[in-house]
Amino acid sequence: MEKFKEGHAGKTFHTPAPKLEFQKPVFKKKRKVDLPKASEHPGAKDYLVKRGLDPDEFFYAAKFKKWANTQTRAFDNTQYDDARIVIPLYTEDGDLFGFQGRALGPSKVKYITIMLDDDIPKVYGLDKMDKSKTVYVVEGPFDSTFVDNAIAMCGADVSLESLGIEDLVYVYDNEPRNKEICQRIEKVIKQGKKLVIFPDKISQKDINDMVLAGHDVESILKSNTYSTLKAQIKFNEWKKL
Question: Which CATH architecture has domain 34-120?
Fold first, then answer.
C-alpha cells in the first residue's frame, strides 16, 4: 500500500531499464624478438650450423647492449658493445619474458641474461614443453634442442617448483671434477629428485658435444636416470673430487 501511494506500484508505473556499460576488453599483445634470424647473418649461421643447431631458432644482434636497451633499461653504458646470438625466453603461451645473448667472438662474459619479467623462472623452452610427459632439465638452451621435451636453466639459482611439472629429470654437464656441478647434483639427490649420471664411456662434457661425437643422447639419458640410493651410489662412482 505504501508503494502504491508513492506511485511505485500499479499498471501505470514502469521501472526504467538499467543502463549496462561494458568496457571493451583490451588484449595484451605478446612480445616477440624484433631482430633478424641468425640464419640471415653468415657468422652467426656458421657458428650454429657447426654446432648442429638450427639458425632459424635464434636471432642476431650486431650491437647486443644497444638492442637490449630498446627492450628494457639493461645497460647504463653501451660503450663496449659486441655482436651476439640472441636466445629468446618465452612463457608457456608464447610471450617474451627475457633473452640471452651468446657472444660470437672472444668475450669475458660468454652469456648475458636479460629479464623482462623477474616473476618468471629463468628457463628456456617453456613454450615447447609438454607437462604430461617427462621433462628433462639441462644446463643450456643449445643442449635442450637435442632432447625431446627438454627445458634449460638460464642460471644456477633457478627454482622450477612454480612450473607444476610432475616428472622432472635433471641433466647436469658431464664434469666430475667440477666442484660446483658436484654440489648441485648432491643437492638434487638429497631432495629425492631424478637425475642423469653419465657412464664412464661418455667423455664429452655436454649434450651438444655428445651429439657431435655421434652418441644417441636420448638413449643415454633414459638408461642412466637415477634417484635416491641408486643415484648416490652412481654419483660416488662418477665424481672425481
Answer: Alpha-Beta Complex (3.90)
What stretch of H or E contains 37? none
pLDDT for 105 equals 85
Judge: domain 121-241, CATH 3.40.1360.10: yes
> In DSSP terms, which residues pair with 151 in a beta bridge?
137
Tell which phi-psi region holds residue 192, choosing left (phi > 0), alpha (psi between -120 and 50) or beta.
left
Comma-separated ranges of CATH 3.40.1360.10 domains in the chain = 121-241
Look at residues 173, 130, 182, 120 and name the one whose alpha carbon lies nearest to residue 151.
130
List phi, psi (to 5°) of 73. -80, 90
Strand 84-90 and strand 59-61: pairing?
A: antiparallel
- Given a contact cutoff of 8 angstroms between Cβ atoms, the answer to whether 235 and 185 are in contact is yes
The series of mean pLDDT values per 10 residues for the chain, 241 residues long, is 59 62 66 96 97 97 97 94 97 96 92 94 96 95 97 84 93 96 96 97 97 97 97 97 82
